[in-house]
Design a protein that fits this description.
heterodimer; A: alpha+beta; Mth169, Chain: A; three-stranded antiparallel sheet; 2 helices; 3 strands; B: alpha/beta; Rossmann fold; two-stranded antiparallel sheet; 5 helices; 11 strands; globular
């Protein structure tokens, strides 16, 4: 089963990378961009066949390693 | 005094730290991350600077699961002294031995230069040889050194005197190189036995090489 994890800085936590990219887009004259936030995506293939179980398992991975829940949120998508 | 310095793949400050503590007449042992146990006579564990596991995923995210770290956590929870410098500070945050988290520097650049710091609290082993409002000048070298903690956590740190050093200019006025909350450079845990800072005291121990301000900091652990 293919699982996609999207990790993002929490709302209210300033994202300096996003801000720098936003500046660069402005410098390239791409107007109308209001906000840029950068996250990461982790794609896994796991043995689990049950979707609920897979989600639970991956949530545990996120809590223990994949995300730093002090500053980051995660979303799990079963593809 | 026995200092155990933990070495991970990607650590690069272990020899500087060893040199510094040997200069202070400590008995120093490098401990490999795959070891199961710390040397039994350990008085102080140092988690040194560097780029453990290539900073993959997040700085210090993976180092916390090295075999020896179970024993480091046990040591810390038993009241043992632990000092995390730079990447070591990031590890202590990732492991939850210190509160908060580390983010990319606000200017997105790796910063490597001398920086002044002001002592906020000295009622602890680490800074006992310095006085409140003393200013030290020691190197910083990091890309992910923007300390973050939420307002509630910050209030708690202040209430318990856990904020130990702040980034300042040479006159002690707050000057923030990396976007850290309240210009914080160093914190400790509630029990005052676990310490973390981004600046490198082990790189400031020879006047000839720029500064020896780190000596008084590292020395704090020698006298208990």
């Amino acid at each position: 089963m293919k699982v996609i994890v999207n990790i993002q800085l929490k709302e209210g936590v300033l994202d300096p990378q996003g801000k720098a990219v936003h500046h660069a887009l402005s410098a390239l004259s791409f107007g109308g961009v209001n906000d840029v936030r950068i996250g990461k995506q982790i794609i896994m293939h796991i043995d689990e066949t049950d979707k609920t179980q897979a989600k639970e398992k991956v949530a545990q991975m996120c809590e223990e390693l994949l995300a730093n829940t002090v500053i980051e949120n995660y979303e799990i998508e079963i593809a | 005094m026995k200092v155990s310095i933990v070495v991970f793949p990607g650590t690069n400050c272990e020899m500087d730290t060893k040199y510094a503590y040997e200069k202070l007449n400590a008995d120093v042992e490098l401990v490999f991350h795959k070891d199961e146990k710390l040397p039994t006579d350990t008085d102080l564990v140092v988690l040194p600077g560097g780029f453990s596991y290539g900073d993959y995923l997040r700085s210090a995210a993976i180092a916390q699961f090295s075999p020896v770290m179970k024993d480091v956590i046990r040591f810390a929870n038993d009241g043992g002294k632990v000092l995390g410098i730079c990447n070591g500070f990031q590890m202590l945050l990732e492991m939850g031995l210190l509160e908060g988290a580390m983010k990319r520097n606000s200017n997105v650049h790796f910063i490597s230069k001398y920086h002044h710091l002001r002592v906020i609290n000295n009622e602890n082993m680490f800074l006992q040889k310095l006085s409140v409002n003393d200013i030290v000048n020691i190197p910083i070298a990091h890309g992910e050194g923007s300390y973050f903690i939420d307002n509630k956590g910050l209030e708690k740190l202040y209430a318990n005197n856990q904020v130990l050093l702040k980034y300042t200019d040479e006159n002690g006025i707050d000057k923030n190189p990396n976007g850290s909350v309240d210009s914080i450079a160093c914190v400790c845990n509630e029990n005052r036995n676990v310490f973390g800072l981004m600046p490198h005291p082990e790189r400031a121990i020879e006047t000839l090489l720029g500064s020896s301000d780190g000596v008084k900091m590292l020395e704090g652990f020698m006298e208990v």
